[in-house]
Specification:
Blueprint lengths: L1 H14 L7 H19 L6 H8 L3 H7 L3 H25 L4 H18 L1 H13 L7 H9 L4 H9 L8 H21 L6 H14 L5 H5 L1
Length: 218
């Protein structure tokens, strides 16, 4: 009898091994679930229990990592921006010269939002639901990291590709154009994927829309 009980305990333990995940991995899973729930349901309607269910954890676990719904939302938004930044940096690292870097970065940027449409939903919700007194986290990130990209702009100026405007000004215009294209694409019903329009958008940024006077006169 004791033998059977002992074997039952042993086999039971073998059938249900406990796997402990690292805190960072668990946090990432919660934030991925939160991004999905907030994007689908909106900030006000999103239920933390739904996030917990999708992440496969208890509601208390979510609150252990993020004490409030707002903290969870802001952390999910930050994760989107961290992933976007990593994607852009990887694209730049894989290109040789400044012009190739610019094209690669913008294509990666637009591709990120094609693959992660929920990210822009969170950007829009942040301004609608959590306006606060400061700038959107998207633009806070721009302020924090724009100097990392100034070398690329200076290289384009030295190669005669871009005008000799302050690099910060060029980066602001580039960022505004790219972000505007993403928001417009998200709010429109019949726009082609951003990937399909990336080269045209890049060409417009570099060359504008106006016909050059010499061409017009000819």
């Amino acid at each position: 009898m004791r033998f059977r009980v002992a074997m039952t305990i042993i086999h039971g333990a073998q059938k249900t091994p406990r796997v402990r995940k690292a805190a960072a991995e668990r946090e990432a899973e919660i934030l991925a679930a939160a991004t999905t729930v907030f994007a689908r349901e909106g900030y006000r309607s999103a239920d933390v229990q739904r996030v917990a269910d999708l992440a496969g954890v208890g509601k208390g676990t979510v609150y252990r990592y993020f004490p409030t719904k707002e903290a969870l939302f802001r952390a999910a938004l930050k994760r989107c921006l961290d992933r976007l930044r990593a994607c852009s940096e990887a694209a730049r690292a894989g290109a040789d010269d400044p012009l190739a870097q610019l094209r690669a970065v913008l294509r990666a940027y637009f591709g990120f939002f094609d693959d992660n449409p929920e990210a822009i939903e969170l950007f829009i919700q942040e301004r609608a639901e959590l306006p606060g007194d400061g700038a959107s986290l998207y633009f806070v990130y721009f302020e924090a990291h724009h100097q990392e990209w100034e070398g690329m702009i200076i290289g384009l100026q030295e190669n005669g590709v871009l005008r000799r405007l302050p690099p910060r000004t060029i980066l602001e215009l580039l960022n505004d154009m790219a972000y505007g294209a993403v928001v417009s694409s998200t709010l429109s019903l019949n726009r082609a994927p951003l990937r399909e329009r990336a080269d045209l958008i890049i060409d417009i940024f570099l060359n504008g829309l106006a016909v050059r006077r010499s061409q017009h006169s000819a």
